[in-house]
Design a protein that fits this description.
The structure is a homodimer. By secondary structure, the first copy, chain A, is an alpha/beta fold. Helix content of chain A is 36%, strand content 19%. In chain A, strands 9-8-11-10-12-13-14 form a 7-stranded mixed sheet, sandwiched between helices. In chain A, α3 (81-90) links the parallel β5 (71-74) and β6. Chain A starts with a helix and ends in a 30-residue tail after the last strand. At the A-B interface, α5, α8, α11 and α17 of A face α5, α8, α11 and α17 of B.
Chain lengths: 738, 738
């Protein structure tokens, strides 16, 4: 028997439950669409009160259908769905597509109804698409459940959380030669089947070359990352995730009932997983098509071939804007260009043919051949008017251009150097562009979109090269070498914040470098401890009940050995005056540190993507400028290192303003320790190491705060709303979270 | 007699000098294009060796033409151009269009040739377009000099520094219903006529509703700003300026020979002048069309009407991304929406009709009426599928949609609330969209471009409201109240850097608040001066020959009165050791200052736009993050105040991290003084006040450096390459620079 997801997305038999004799009803139109789309399997209308619909025999119940049903399309109203699913459960359906609205996206009542259908489905192994979905399509077999005709066939698999957006993408694709879809799934509320579960199907599907996702919010973003990382090794994935702004977030959650999350975190974890993220909806289809039709670009060096200085300059700007390079060409390439182009031409990159192709567009062929063969060049961009010479000058040039297109595409294919063409004449649909597209050379009207596509190809190529060095996103809690302090943490009741002493002990056990510290429980011990350290010390009251130690005057800096005793008394007095009920464990004593760059390392638990590590420079860099880097935990060393490279102000790490460069390895070690800690412990809601002092040869945590999740009980897995309950075998024995 | 620019852009008679009997030559094709474009004036071919070309009598010399010539189209090769211009000079031509290449854009020889033709032109009052131009077009009269046919007629005036880019824009416009051009000018090398000089013509031209410029580099950017500020009060100007990146800059200068300049400065001064700057070439035409067809948006509050949650969410994100707001609707509006939309709809902004228009798109009319009448709403954006209901559902909906379009446009027009429509069906060209466009409602396929257009309308609306408060860009050096120190500066030979003492005196005279300072010329005086100030002092050796005072150990901080005498001796010794030949004026003594936020105020002389003032926060904010604001000098108070609001880290000025807010008025005063200083003195190349300490109640300049332009001699006007030499009456009597 095939897997449920294969039976759903490639059904041989479809039952339409709620079939209708009334042509204005969805239960009638659904059958009509299947018939007009040429569905090559069986259609079984189900309705206890009809005999025949559109020439097909009608069955009173789905159980009466004469063969096994791969897909039950349920078009009855929401409140009737549970009873229909009960019927489906009695026979071996592959799965059901629930079209009705009025579930989790509405109110408490709807949420209860959604829980009910999910529970029926899981108890009976019936997989669900939806509810609140427009349906799904398999273009090749004609299994079209959405009632839209004219969906162009192609190599893109589309997963979409908005039916109208899917219509918009179908319409856009219909206007673009060579762009189309192999499948479409409206994931709806993701009540059962979620984004991640469709990915392996598309990876297997021969018709699908790239996967396109429009997402408002994931039910389980962590599972998506884990699966996407595997799928994207073979099949590129492009995501447009909306709900980036505050008002967009509000709009998204009222629409699908899912959380939209933080856009900066989403961008970071997508990149980490090799998912290409597109933030303009008008670039989604173009980028997906480029990834589907072109080899990944192995580098970021782009040669520009422009027929005019204006296009050459604009192309260079657009490439630079997106972080791509315009490298020097080899002398050989420049020489080859010189032999075919006029004196006025620029044979430096960006190359400007300067009229050298006006009489004879076949000159483009020689130029393209020279560029794709240049070892300095990873991809080539044509920009300007190619394909329009016939229209612009004389008709005789049209066949010349067309032949050139064929040869140019062949030259690119021979070297495996991706070639992308931007032409103002794209909108006039010249034959030359058809030839290019037939030979897998994409053509764009917009220069900016063409360059965005090159940037996506380069990002994907870079990821493919580095994928093995990046996080697996797997939260494996089964390993046994959890440190003792950590075990103590697990035993501790979840009651808010750890004291700084507890937090530092835990970090120390995880191998993070913390400034030496000792807990003094009385004034005499404070004096003794202070004397053990070289130089003056910092002293802070230790209390898990006090967050604002500075405001309470419960912190003293630059304390000498001699003053340690009296300082101890004073700090404790201040603390008790500030918060009489606080339980005080003593005073933490550490040597003073001042040399180095203040950085912040943190961890948080994203509502969609689970544990995430954060890095930034201290003070205003994080607080005002939000110049931070995120990665999903657990980090690899590569992940940690690239976080340091990602912040805008990273020049400071290299020793701007006359300071020495900091020790990146030491900082990487801190990031890895924090990553392991937050990955191991679902009961940790937040870690904030501020500051970490990064120096020439080390990095030391000066202050640490660890907040526990009051709602999470590490002994009880079911408390976690993100817990994937339907696949119990994927939950590690150790239990809990994500 | 009409002005030369009117005769050139709206010619009644055109002579083609270099006319040819050979149909493959430009001198033949030019005549053919004029004839086929229906040019309604006279055409006079000029060629000593022909009698008749395309049915027209040929004249041996332009002087032989039987009537006065408005425009001489010169298609002879570069080296022949000077002699042709001499002939033009003998009769009263309005001006000449020089097509040939091989001038300033090539080499020294070309530059000399360009200088020669400019000098002939100016001596004889013959205005030049080009050289290195594709020509110009007046669509209405058929005066088409560029040989491209099918240029769509419309209301945009196009000034373009790249002929091929003009072709691309013509082609793009031809594919967009309702978008076209009134005129085109290829400005070429701007050897004589420059960008700014065309603006008043377009302002007068009734056919032109917006001006579109593609610029690589301005010959005189300051003149453009000054003129654009006036023109943009009536006629919007959109600029796409390339050469933003380093490699783009190189490409631009090899193409037109002009300097491309700094992109951040260009963006800032364009905004100051009310010029809308577009950095994606694919948005240029769309933005220009929106500005030409729509009233400016008076605010930034946009209501979204989406047919689907996906479009609602994406639209909200796209608006937020571009700084626009999605305001709450009034209760009345929400009530009106509730009465026509289904329960599932969201009547909060962004509004999602949630299927409420599927059966009856006329529901859009009521929604649109409610939104355009809402007092919280400055503009309305439709996003989704409007115009596609007929195609998507049943044909009967098409007339309903079409009628709705008419009513929607009328509702928007009645309230003067701009309305922009984004529809996935734009590419299918439905009648409904034609109705919208005929009623001045623009329709876009791309959501991002639609929102960029709204953002441009809002920016233009804001500028129109504030234009009077902004800089005139006029550098009026005729006023007589130049301070004494400044007069001394003018008398001073231009020999590099002023000493800190001289710089601070000059700033003081210009009313900038400088920390109190005195020059001590010997150790005893240092002691006396230090005693006069409260508390410890800072001491620095004063020498115009020493730039690196700190490295020379020629600076001492926190010096007490008692130590002042010995410190004086020590600093002078250190300075002499470091740079034995430096002439030392003494030691500058100032009271120590520490409280406040360190900011940097600077001024520079941009190669295109002249004197520019800069503001940023001290240290890494400027050096690493480049978080700075620029404005063209002279500043108004409004300009100065908005600079403070523009930096990313401005939260720090408001007192982030527990600090008090700084006194913005005091900082504005410093900016205004620096602005006046740099505007008054062309001999100042650079001012660097770093730091200025901005406190709760004041702002004081702690350190000042003023660099003089070694090449500029204030007594000699002609030295300045940016000097507009051809319009001597615009140069103020006081003389010199910009």
């Amino acid at each position: 028997m095939r897997q449920p997801i294969d039976r759903l997305l490639n059904p041989m038999s479809i039952a339409v439950v709620g079939a209708s004799t009334d042509p204005s009803k969805r239960g009638h139109q659904a059958i009509e669409t299947l018939q007009t789309s040429g569905f090559d399997g069986s259609i079984y209308p189900v309705n206890p009160n009809a005999d025949e619909i559109r020439g097909l025999e009608v069955y009173p119940s789905i159980a009466d259908a004469p063969e096994s049903i791969d897909l039950a399309l349920i078009v009855v109203p929401g409140p009737v769905v549970p009873s229909v699913l009960e019927e489906c459960a009695e026979i071996d359906v592959g799965g059901a597509v629930v079209v009705a609205v009025g579930f989790g996206e509405t109110d408490d009542e709807g949420e209860a109804l959604e829980e009910e259908i999910v529970s029926i489905a899981r108890e009976n192994d019936v997989r669900l698409v939806g509810p609140n979905t427009s349906g799904l399509i398999n273009i090749d077999t004609g299994a079209n459940l959405i009632g839209a005709d004219g969906v162009p066939e192609g190599d893109l698999g589309l997963l979409c959380q908005s039916g109208n957006l899917a219509i918009a993408l179908f319409t856009e694709a219909a206007g673009r030669e060579g762009v189309g879809f192999s499948h479409y799934v409206g994931v709806g509320n993701e009540a059962d089947l979620q984004f991640d579960e469709y990915l392996p199907f598309f990876e297997r599907a021969e018709e699908t070359e790239a996967i396109v996702c429009y997402v408002e919010g994931f039910s389980d973003g962590r599972a998506f990352l884990e699966r996407a990382r595997e799928t994207s090794r073979e099949t590129p994935i492009v995501v447009c995730k909306s709900g980036r702004s505050a008002v967009g977030k509000r709009s998204a959650s009222s629409h699908t009932g899912s959380l939209a999350g933080d856009a900066a975190i989403a961008d970071a974890v997508f990149r980490q997983a090799g998912v290409i993220s597109v933030d303009r909806s008008d670039e989604l289809l173009a980028v997906a098509d480029a990834l589907a039709s072109q080899p990944p670009v192995d580098g970021d060096n782009v040669a520009v071939l422009a027929d005019g200085g204006g296009h050459a300059t604009l192309a260079a700007d657009a490439l630079a804007e997106r972080g791509l390079s315009v490298p020097r060409l080899t002398e050989q390439t420049r020489h080859r260009l010189e032999t075919v182009l006029p004196d006025a031409a620029s044979v430096e990159n960006p190359v400007d043919v300067a009229g050298g192709t006006d009489d004879d567009p076949s000159v483009f062929t020689d130029c393209a051949a020279a560029l794709v063969e240049d070892p300095n060049v990873d991809a080539v961009l044509f920009s300007g008017l190619f394909g329009g010479y016939g229209e612009r000058f004389t008709d005789d040039l049209e066949p010349v251009e067309r032949a050139a297109a064929q040869e140019i595409a062949a030259a690119a294919a021979a070297t495996d150097t991706p070639l992308v063409v931007q032409s103002a004449y794209e909108s006039t649909d010249p034959e030359t562009h058809t030839v290019l597209r037939e030979n897998d050379v994409p053509v764009y009207e917009s220069l900016d979109i063409a360059v965005t596509c090159l940037s996506a190809l380069s990002e994907y190529g870079t990821h493919r090269r580095l994928a093995d060095e990046k996080s697996s996103f797997e939260l494996d809690r089964s390993h046994t070498d959890v440190p003792a302090g950590a075990r103590a943490l697990e035993e501790r009741a979840s009651d808010g914040t750890l004291s700084e002493y507890e937090a530092k002990r835990l970090l120390d056990e995880y191998g993070a470098s913390v400034t030496p510290f000792e807990l003094a429980e009385d004034a005499a011990e404070a004096e003794r401890v202070a004397a053990e350290f070289d130089g003056p010390v910092a002293m802070k009251v230790v209390s898990a009940d006090m967050v604002h130690k500075t405001e309470a005057d419960a912190v003293a800096l630059d304390v000498t050995d001699e003053a340690a005793r009296s300082t101890y008394e004073r700090l404790c007095e201040n603390a008790r005056a500030y918060e009489p009920d606080a339980s005080i464990d003593g005073v933490l004593v550490s040597p003073m540190r001042t040399d180095g760059v203040e950085v912040i390392v943190g961890a948080t638990r994203d509502e969609q993507f689970g544990p995430v590590v954060m890095f930034g420079l201290g003070g205003v860099f994080v607080e005002v400028l939000e110049d931070v880097a995120f990665r999903g935990a657990p980090l690899t060393e590569h992940d940690a290192r690239t976080m340091l490279e990602e912040i805008d102000a990273q020049e400071i790490l290299d020793g701007a303003r006359g300071n020495p460069a900091i020790d990146r390895d030491a900082l990487v070690d801190v990031l890895l320790a924090v990553s392991q800690l937050v990955a191991d412990h679902p009961e940790i809601a937040e870690i904030d190491l501020n500051p970490v002092l990064a120096g020439e040869g080390d990095a030391e945590i000066l202050d640490a705060s660890i907040v526990l999740d009051a709602e999470s009980d590490p002994t009880d897995e079911t408390d976690d709303p993100d817990q994937p309950m339907y696949e119990p075998d994927t939950v590690p024995d150790g239990g809990a979270d994500e």
